[in-house]
Amino acid sequence: MALLQVENISKSFGERKLFQNLSFQLEQGKVYTLLGPNGSGKSTILNILTGFIKADSGTITFNDQILNSKSPKEISRLGIVRTFQDLRLINNLSVKENVLLVLDKKMFHITSYEEYTKVSEILKRVSLETVEKNLGSDLSYGQQKLLTLACCLANEPKLLLLDEPVSGIDKENQEKIKLLVQELKAEDKTIIQVEHNRDYIKETSDFVLYLNNGIIDISQNNN
Ligand SMILES: Nc1ncnc2c1ncn2[C@@H]1O[C@H](COP(=O)(O)OP(=O)(O)OP(=O)(O)O)[C@@H](O)[C@H]1O
Ligand SMILES: [Mg+2]
Question: Which structural domains are found in the chain, ordered by start?
Answer without folding.
Answer: 4-220 (3.40.50.300)
